[in-house]
């Protein structure tokens, strides 16, 4: 499906995957709301609110304003959470919550890219504490995700250190390409959201997956292939082919470098100023 195995005399390549509604069928962050409730991190009202947010997200995607409101809500919600407790809750419930909602088609693509010799990188707006374990579950080589500031007490402060969203995803991909030697003209990218057009534009092989209406229009205008993923399946129920040989340990978002992180904060700050002035 993806061609011959990479010629290792050529520059390295990678496949960049958005996570929510591209690799998994729901919002990764919102999926853990009940687990966070059971762990005492949120109350019942917050569970109901995140359930509604999940419904809106699944019904039609989320535009920039909705994503910004969701970011602000989740940032405020997680203020004061103990990071180690969050990691433990995610680890304990990961297989029960995430394994059943992984798209079979996405898992097959990940296999194909690895067989072809390409790195697989998950690039998600969700928090690193959620995305990194999912990346390991999927056998990804690297993860780029939003990072929250952690205080000296080991708890989230509610502030954002790096926001992996919109243009900042493209900046992270370019930073990784520079550090890892990826030839972006031969790389692949997959996303469902029009907010990821900068990420898709940065590679030679962009794909729209289950696209929202705006991305479908963009993909049609740019002649980008459109893929439909609709078969969530547990990894263990798939053929043994998914049992890939052991791969090097997943590399987390810090690998994108200070330049991408700074770009993310500058872009986020500029958006905040624009919304304040509007």
TrEMBL record:
A Pfam family assignment: HAD
Keyword Transport on entry: no
InterPro entries, per database record: HAD-like_SerB, HAD-like_sf, HAD_hydro_SerB1, HAD_sf
Record has Kinase as a keyword: no
Molecular function per GO: hydrolase activity; metal ion binding
Domain of life: Bacteria
Record key words, sorted: Hydrolase, Magnesium, Membrane, Metal-binding, Transmembrane, Transmembrane helix
Transmembrane portions of the chain: 249-269
Signal peptide per UniProt: none
Family note: Belongs to the HAD-like hydrolase superfamily. SerB family.
NCBIfam families: HAD-SF-IB, HAD-SF-IB-hyp1
Name of this chain's protein: Inhibition of morphological differentiation protein
Organism of origin: Streptomyces scopuliridis RB72
């Amino acid at each position: 499906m993806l061609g011959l195995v990479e010629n290792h005399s050529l520059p390295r390549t990678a496949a960049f995957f958005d996570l929510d509604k591209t690799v998994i069928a729901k919002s990764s962050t919102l999926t853990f709301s009940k687990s966070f409730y059971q762990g005492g991190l949120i109350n019942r009202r917050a569970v109901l609110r995140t359930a509604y947010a999940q419904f809106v997200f699944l019904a039609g995607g989320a535009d920039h304003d909705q994503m910004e409101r969701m970011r602000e809500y989740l940032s405020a919600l997680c203020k004061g959470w103990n990071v180690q407790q969050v990691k433990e809750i995610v680890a304990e419930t990961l297989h029960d919550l995430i394994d059943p909602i992984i798209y079979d088609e996405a898992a097959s693509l990940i296999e194909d890219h690895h067989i072809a010799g390409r790195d697989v990188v998950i690039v998600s707006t969700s928090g690193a504490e959620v995305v990194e374990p999912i990346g390991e579950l999927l056998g990804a080589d690297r993860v780029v995700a939003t990072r929250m500031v952690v205080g000296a007490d080991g708890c989230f402060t509610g502030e954002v250190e790096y926001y992996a969203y919109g243009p900042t995803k493209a900046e992270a991909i370019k930073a990784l390409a520079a550090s890892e030697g990826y030839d972006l003209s031969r790389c692949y990218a997959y996303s469902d959201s029009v907010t990821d057009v900068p990420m898709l534009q940065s590679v030679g092989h962009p794909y729209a997956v289950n696209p929202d209406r705006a991305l479908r229009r963009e993909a049609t205008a740019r002649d980008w292939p459109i893929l439909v993923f609709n078969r969530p399946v547990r990894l263990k129920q798939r053929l043994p082919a998914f049992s890939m040989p052991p791969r090097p340990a997943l590399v987390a978002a810090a690998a994108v470098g200070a330049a991408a992180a700074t770009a993310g904060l500058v872009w986020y700050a500029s958006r905040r100023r624009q919304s304040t002035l509007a």
